[in-house]
Amino acid sequence: MNDLKTIRIFLTTIFLVASLAWLFIGPEVNPMAVISVKTQIIPSALTVTIGATAFWLVATFVFGRLYCSSVCPVGTLQDAAIWLRRFVKTRDGKRRTLLGFKISPLGYRHRSKRGWTIFVLYVASLIVGILRLEWLLQPWTLLQSAAGLVRPGAVADTWGTQTVWGLLGSGVITGCVVSAIFLAVLLFMALLDGRWFCNEICPIGTGLGFVGEYSLYHIEIDPDRCTNCMKCEEVCPSHCVKVVSRYVDDARCVRCFNCLKVCPDAAIRYQINRNRRQTPLMQRRKQLQ
């Protein structure tokens, strides 16, 4: 079970390298780099076949949000930013800060409704044709727009079709600059507060979260094995593990498998069935409560 995180990191690295090579260098870098765009949800949805979109909807229903943890390049970049948290030390017993900003702990938080509000605005913008919002909120096109600062050809089919964007002049230049700034802020916020973008801003994450909430395979905490060490909750970048209640919010869980790796008692597992207490005394006590 602990090998799941290793497998995820291996796949994530492949997709991230392919994505960055495709966007920042170009399709000619290697024929295999085409895998990066062929497996993305939005580029697939804009084609006639929508094969990748259908595949990820089915895969999410079965396994959960594997797309967010293994294929989405912006999700991987956020994981890299979150990993850097360990190098920010606490001084004089105070909370950790970076450039004056507090680094929040990765404990459980209640689900925010902000994601659904943005999802509705996102869908509405697609319907009325305001594509600029889609290019900023959708992870692939956001990274694609930022890559336009290095390789203008990366935005030939997005910002390159716009003549004016706002009051700053060229649509191409402005779009790429705004996207790069937004991406930088996004990654900085990931360092401070985990995967907030995936569950509160990203419309793709919100949509997959709705499907993932009913996934067949899920992260489950064994109530008879768990010793309340809190390690799984403290490493969850999505703030979706609540040890006290033996609860994992599958709508927000991106299947990073960090929790499985750190659990010293094998009390948290990725499985298809639900756990029930095996100790009769604990069952009776729960009924009395």
Straight-line distance between termini: 34 Å
Secondary structure tally, helices? 15
**CA-atom Rg in angstroms:** 20 Å
Tally of DSSP β-strands: 6
Q: What portion of residues belong to β-strands?
A: 5-15%
Mean pLDDT score: 83
What can you see in these coordinates?
The protein is mainly alpha-helical. It folds into two domains: 3-210, no CATH class; 219-288, Alpha-Beta Plaits (2-Layer Sandwich), CATH 3.30.70. Helix content is 51%, strand content 6%. The chain is built from 15 helices and six strands. It has helices at 3-24, 35-38, 41-45, 51-63, 66-71, 73-83, 114-128, 131-137, 139-147, 171-193, 196-200, 203-212, 231-234, 258-262, 280-288, and strands at residues 97-98, 101-102, 218-221, 241-242, 247-248, 268-271. The strands form three sheets. The protein has a two-stranded antiparallel sheet. It has a two-stranded antiparallel sheet with strand order 3-6. Helix 6 (73-83) crosses helix 10, helix 7 crosses helix 12 and helix 9 packs across helix 10 (171-193). The longest helix has 23 residues, at 171-193. 37% of the residues are buried. The model is unreliable at 162-169 and 280-286 (pLDDT under 50).
Report a brief summary of the structure:
The protein is mostly helical and 289 residues long. It is built from 15 helices and 6 strands.
Give the SSE map.
Blueprint: H1 3-24, H2 35-38, H3 41-45, H4 51-63, H5 66-71, H6 73-83, E1 97-98, E2 101-102, H7 114-128, H8 131-137, H9 139-147, H10 171-193, H11 196-200, H12 203-212, E3 218-221, H13 231-234, E4 241-242, E5 247-248, H14 258-262, E6 268-271, H15 280-288
Helix pairs in contact: 4-12, 6-10, 7-12, 8-9, 9-10
